[in-house]
């Protein structure tokens, strides 16, 4: 059983589901219209009131989660938390409220998860499709074929700001709609050639916004549930005629969602016109479904992060043989150090694979460039927090250890750094590790015991170890090397 919690810009939502046969069946859903994006002040900070509403909602979600035997949960935050200047103040309180870590995902990662949910729900192999998702703070456009994503982009266009900017005080005018639609088109026009109908067969709308607009069209006499430009323009004209959001009488749309739907309507018309969409099919699946599918795949050891790391190696032309050698040695060394748990195992492996990606920029400072690339690049499947962790490991693989800062407060992190550094050193010294030849421990100090003839068999290791002893001594950690029998 899996659970996905989505901290959206408009609403916080949760799905609890189980994998059955070839699909994930949703057993429980919850939604709370937090309006987080509306809680950003003029300086881009979340207000105290908005943060309190968010934490109260997450505490309620925690109670619901406790009622189910859940195997894995992911809590993801989207655009508003991505851009909030005081997100670092909000996240600890939010994590305490729900009792789980919160992953702030990039717009592109959000798009990939959305597509994963849609493609698994449709289960139409090899279908070339366009998927759009209009959220409270951003809009994602994804081009795919079957389960494969061809292209994904995220645009900072959301229903909350669009409604506030172009329909102030709830006024609906011709000028407001025209400006709202043209703004969307202007933000999309450079990207749209890649998403034209020649590249896809069917188009799908995955967001609650699209489904709400579809309901409004069908339940208010504008036609069936399929969304076309003609119907959207008719709904626009009706809204202009009414003149005020409070005066709209749209069956099927809750009163509190009407303003968001009007902003979404303008965005959707802009998308239709710029992407030349003829028909858009609303679909229930989306981000939360995609998160649950991602959890399921991880549970079956089909973690797409592994593929993303290897794609990253190819992109930056890293030496795969050296990368795998370091990753294997670092993993073995880390296990010999007996970490308290296995939470860093994957990150030691992936960081070791990526340790030389910075070589494409510089052979002398490759660890610094690699660290920057790993932290700032778009690596599918990884959260911002995960990439920062791997970036620190890549940075710490050589040179002084002062740059790691307070990271060594976590002993397991210190063990991960030690394992990576020794693996890199042994790789350079062309050592083929036989783990019967040495013993490695780390508590208050580092203890490395080697067979007496080991250094003579690998003469350059002595140089690497002397450098390593000095680096650890500089941060107050003794590194003792002994020769055994």
UniProtKB/TrEMBL annotation:
Signal peptide: none
CDD domains: ASKHA_NBD_EcPPX-GppA-like
Residue ranges of domain Ppx/GppA phosphatase N-terminal in the record: 22-297
Keywords associated with the record: Hydrolase
Record-linked Gene3D superfamilies: 3.30.420.40, Exopolyphosphatase. Domain 2 (3.30.420.150), Hypothetical protein af1432 (1.10.3210.10)
Ppx/GppA phosphatase C-terminal domain boundaries: 305-466
UniProt xrefs under InterPro entries: ATPase_NBD, GppA/Ppx_hydrolase, Ppx_GppA_C, Ppx_GppA_N, PyroPPase_GppA_Ppx
Protein name: Ppx/GppA family phosphatase
Species of origin: Undibacterium flavidum
